[in-house]
Amino acid sequence: MKAILENLNRSVGVIGSAVMTNDGIVVTSAISDGLNQDTLAAIGSLLVISVQRALKRCDDTGLNFMTIEGSRGKIVMVNAGSVFLLVITDSSIALGPTMLDIRSTVDKLQKLISLNT
């Protein structure tokens, strides 16, 4: 699984990535030394839980994809079934081309997870 994330991190503008449960437990990560894995997992967990609650109140079925843009970069979270893929990018990239790599990574993770269950 880590090799899949390391491959994603080679995409233009991707700084790091992690696979986490929706309650904030990091399954695996490929995050650079400058970023704190536990802090990112906590942020990811808070975002997922908050947005899922809000969507449920609107009678939506659940969170599929979310992007948060900050002054120093972007956080992209994609539902990959039983886990979420969290991707950190720099602020200058356009997500369009990178989203192809992110979606491909989600497909690989889902296949890997289904093989292990």
Structure description:
- The protein has one domain (2-116): Dynein light chain 2a, cytoplasmic (Beta-Lactamase), CATH 3.30.450.
- The protein is built from 3 helices and 5 strands; from the N terminus they run αββαβββα.
- The protein has helices at 2-8, 37-57, 95-116; strands spanning 14-20, 26-31, 65-69, 73-79, 84-90.
- Strand 3 (65-69) and strand 4 form a beta hairpin.
- The mean pLDDT is 88.
Q: Assign the CATH topology.
A: Beta-Lactamase
Query: Which CATH-level-2 architecture?
Result: 2-Layer Sandwich
User: Can you say what the CATH homologous superfamily is?
Assistant: Dynein light chain 2a, cytoplasmic
Q: Please tally the helical runs, counting DSSP H or I stretches of 4 or more residues.
A: 3
What portion of residues is helical? 40-55%
Beta strands, count: 5
Task: Explain briefly what this protein structure is.
The protein has 117 residues and is an alpha+beta fold. Helix content is 43%, strand content 27%. A five-stranded antiparallel β-sheet has the order 2-1-5-4-3, with helices on both faces.
Task: Give the key terms.
117 residues; alpha+beta; Beta-Lactamase; five-stranded antiparallel beta sheet; 27% strand; globular
List the helices and strands and how they pair.
Layout: H1 2-8, E1 14-20, E2 26-31, H2 37-57, E3 65-69, E4 73-79, E5 84-90, H3 95-116
Antiparallel strand pairs: 1-2, 1-5, 3-4, 4-5
